[in-house]
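yo, Farnesoic acid O-methyl transferase domain-containing protein is done. seq:
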Amino acid sequence: MITATQYLETEDRLQYNFFPNRSGLCQFRVRAPNDAHIALSPSAAETTPMYEIFIGGWGNSKSVIRKNRSKPDVAEVPTPGILNEHEFRGFWVRWENGTISAGNEGEGSPFISFTDYERVPIEYVGFCTGWGARGSWVIEQREGGGPIPAAYTQGPPSHAANVCWVASSNGQVPPRPFVGGEDNGEVMYVCRSNLNGALLPGKLLQSHGNGYVAWGGKENPVYEYEVLCDFGGTWVATSGGNIPSGSLTAGQSEAGEPLYIGRVVHDGALTVGKVQPSHGCLYIPYGGKELSFKDYEILVQ
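structure:
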């Protein structure tokens, strides 16, 4: 993944600096005492329709989402001390299927969100400060203007470089997810989630509103998870504890053993789960249970 870092200094004048962005996600860090403003717009200008997210407004006491620069605000939450004039604070902004949300760097759940019946085509993101504040910004961007999705994290040590996991929740699917299987005609994505001290690869079905991981003999629903995105891997047939070269390390057991991503056809569904080499099998979450298989496919780069 080729990335570029944009450095931006904003004055105390509420004038947006726009960057092209059609990805649905934006990640940045900002150092400011208050009022870090982000605009989501169809063009490189303040226009109608448009959304604005004010982080640390009203003396760094609350954050809001505003549509078309009009009051009343469509969403408002108390966020005392969310910004700091002496240190950079990281955030992400996401827009997808009419939902606008913002969260803290490294956290999958937003601290503010708003769902609009009008689907506004967002193509530019703007940044500015005001109300007595100047700001320093570090904006991570993909080559071509798209940002690195919010809360991308690197997994445990892996053969695969530049593997990206995007934090999400409640059935939401980030842009450019990796498709791992299908169930009754519905696309199944590869996800992972923390459970009982382990980081477990599993499956995500958007219609269910959550992901699932296999652990403790059960199919465990997870409502906060990470989705594998921007990945060009392939599936290789294997069996037992045989781990082919280049297999993608996607998690670890509670004992620290690396876990891999596997899949198998069961009951007519091509289902994703975890490969645990010491157990010599693939485990899938299915039908409320944790099911094991000696023959399966494993994901490699």
